[in-house]
């Protein structure tokens, strides 16, 4: 194993959180920072020269190679886990920028009560109505503490949107249910599509409160506080699963990396697969990684930051033997607990006129939060928390959008009749999507598989995960609202896939996986403290959605970035002055 020259900070992962932490450190200190990314380098020229729907959206060019590493899944500890050998439940990105390169760009904040969820649920429903296996807990940080960091992330990205609660003043047209924000969004909302306008009109008529989906895609040219300029969106429809060919969609490579790439104290190494955190006597010494040619290296560092995707962060801690693994029977230990995903679904709606759906972007949409959290719940729905509903014009691309026809139109999804129906209904189909909070339970967790390994022979991460009656009722509740909106839209037809009883790893449910290395106020209940510093290793920081005790309804990216900015401030302003455990 080759020993490299020591650096002050080594960061595993070059996605949103890893590059955000790197940017803060290298621009505010003289510390040397090395960021290791196991995938390839990414540049805007790659996207503008090679964009292709078959390559990116169908063959998933930007995703991790599941032939080299995947995860195993089982529904309960009594079942035998099996490896997932096809892309389904989630689509983890790889390469510089990570999933932040192929994301849709939806930029939600979590509502204030999300950060005191355990207390809020018990106060609202009483302890008797809370399931005994519910593992939700309060975060060690409040919305008010995170609000300035949300704003910092929104400025860096240039989020397009409309405030609904500006310093306590409710503003119609924005999200009137959101927590108070101190500033209006950096850029105005994106242009409204025909589908979005119809959704807004229909939901308003019912009595709901639609607002523009907050988007990482710029509505107009923008310069962020780091001096990075990007153009406005061209509405080409190639966002989700693609990198932006003009830079209008915020990505780690087009924002954070551009701000630090030429700094002398910053180094980015792609093709570096981090396999262990090396530690001794309760302190991290650096990381061990293997490069694309198979050569092994040790990168010494005074501070180690794990900033990879949720599952990879947790797996690295397991493989490095850091922390006490969670035991679901005894309910002891912390590493791997509070695994959550996203409870999602969609209703297809069909119209008698074209929608010009080929124009759009990944986050061009309209949303209602009338049922997010406790909103709109009367108490007899059988659920503790609700979610958001939205209609988006993401761009109807030729391959993936073809074949979307009303139920009963064709007997099968192939053949002459199906092709004729597909052409007749082309550009007349839209959707109403829902996403609800996924609460954490004692029986949903992560550990290492005892049978299956990756290409290096290291154990794969195993997910023990299944839906409960609560998630099924959440879906049924959301479907009922979706159908009410579909009728208000005067749709010709609408259809929703049946609610499945079991968690299906072959069905895409977003790449939003949370937990496993959660934040908290005590090492008995969490892996990292309020600043994302590991309880057992003061110079080890674990950032990203792995720190979330449970998932919200909206996408987690902005909350992950807000926590990262806060952690960076604490690391720079407090830890560097007096290294050691922070309280």
Task: Describe the model.
The protein is of the alpha/beta class. The chain has a domain at 1-59 and 92-159 and 250-340 and 514-583: FAD/NAD(P)-binding domain. 22% of the residues lie in helices and 19% in strands. The protein has helices spanning 16-28, 44-50, 53-58, 99-102, 117-125, 143-157, 194-206, 256-260, 310-319, 416-425, 469-488, 557-575, and strands at residues 2-3, 7-12, 33-37, 71-74, 82-83, 165-166, 169-170, 210-212, 222-223, 229-230, 266-270, 272-280, 283-291, 296-306, 343-350, 365-368, 387-392, 429-436, 445-453, 459-464, 493-496, 540-542. The strands form 5 sheets. Strands 1, 2, 3, 11, 12, 13, 14 and 22 form an 8-stranded mixed beta sheet that branches. Strand 12 (272-280) and strand 13 (283-291) form a beta hairpin. The longest helix has 20 residues, at 469-488. The chain is globular and about 70 Å long. The relative contact order is 0.19. The model has no long low-confidence stretch (mean pLDDT 95).
Provide a quick synopsis of the model.
With 583 residues, this protein is of the alpha/beta class. 22% of the residues lie in helices and 19% in strands.
Largest sheet: 8 strands, mixed
Percentage of residues in helical conformation: 10-25%
N-to-C span: 37 Å
What's the average pLDDT? 95
Name the features.
eight-stranded mixed beta sheet; 22 strands; alpha/beta; six-stranded antiparallel beta sheet; FAD/NAD(P)-binding domain; about 575 residues; about 20% helix; globular
Write the layout of secondary structure elements.
Layout: E1 2-3, E2 7-12, H1 16-28, E3 33-37, H2 44-50, H3 53-58, E4 71-74, E5 82-83, H4 99-102, H5 117-125, H6 143-157, E6 165-166, E7 169-170, H7 194-206, E8 210-212, E9 222-223, E10 229-230, H8 256-260, E11 266-270, E12 272-280, E13 283-291, E14 296-306, H9 310-319, E15 343-350, E16 365-368, E17 387-392, H10 416-425, E18 429-436, E19 445-453, E20 459-464, H11 469-488, E21 493-496, E22 540-542, H12 557-575
